[in-house]
Amino acid sequence: MPTLFDPVQAGDLHLANRIVMAPLTRNRAPDAIPTPLMAEYYTQRASAGLLITEATAISHEGQGYSDVPGLYGTEQLDGWKKVTAAVHKAGGKIVVQLWHVGRVSHTDLQPHGGKPVAPSAITAKTKTVLIKNGVPTFVDTSEPRALQAQELPGIVHTYQAAARNAVETAGFDGVEIHGANGYLLDQFLKSGSNQRTDDYGGSIENRARLLLEVTRAITGAIGGGRTGIRLSPVTPANDAFDADPQLLFDYVIRELATLNLAYIHIIEGATGGPRDLPERPFDYAALKAAYRAAGGKGAWMVNNGYDQALADQAMQDGADLVAFGKAYIANPDLVRRLRENAPLNTPDKATFYGGGAKGYTDYPALA
Ligand code: 8OZ
Fold this sequence. Notes:
By secondary structure, the protein is an alpha/beta fold. The chain has one domain: TIM Barrel, CATH 3.20.20.70. 29% of the residues lie in helices and 17% in strands. The strands form 4 sheets. The protein has an 8-stranded parallel barrel, surrounded by 4 helices. Strand 3 (19-21), helix 1 and strand 4 form a beta-alpha-beta unit. Helix 1 runs parallel beside helix 2. The radius of gyration is 19 Å and the shape is globular.
């Protein structure tokens, strides 16, 4: 039985251990451009088997929060190039999380103050973050407009271009498709946010179409072995809801199994919250079994509220990788701390979103 500290192959990615830094939004990229401070932050954490960057907008339209990074402009790509170079120099591996927020945005963040885009014109009952005069402020998301069917190939193409730029220009080892947490692809997947009557709404096959088209476009451009995907079957984050998630994700995972992905990243329960949702039961073991039964060979990555004991249990149950979120905010040397059973620093919520080095690059490593 492998332990968290044993190496593993995830598609084309050879990982030194099975501990993954989860994607964490930190809102420290003014004008969507990655900074040298971000390079320092990721490099401090380079002993993880894999670093997944914070969610990164594939287009201006795909952006939904102040000061989150992008991957669509030259300066943004140049900024990321410095991040990946520093991480690689420190011996780490890093993939970028490709993000389109869909309806989880605000007109203030959209090109020309336009409406955010979504599968259907249904406002998400959720908040986003605007940073005004350096102060993060939570505001209601704006009413979106429904995307026209003829706009969808453009969105698929934008994801594909971002993936290509990520590996060819910015130097990433691969990409993670953000298919979770109530953002655009998850909005299409789930019945609560998708009331379309065309080929992209209604049946499960139709609701899954955009996510699968995006995934195929990306694997076609950069290879499945450098592509991972994150899914959150039952999270209530950002007003996500599906009437029958077990059936939906059984279909999605079987289709993904044919694409030779590097890994599948599953958020169990409510993102950053309870792992067990009595009102939203879900059988994750059945999901993994369906993936393997359909020929899926990717690494199986689990996430949400893991500590050492729960992670060991997950490895026994056949997980290949465990992603740690909040623990990684506060513990740059998390791999060493877990290996040595050392105490963990406590993350400070007040500095999660926005700001500078404080609560970002100043958490101490072990002496
Ligand atoms: C926290 C704050 C803003 C965005 C996600 C990208 O939930 C996020 C996010 C998390 O996936």
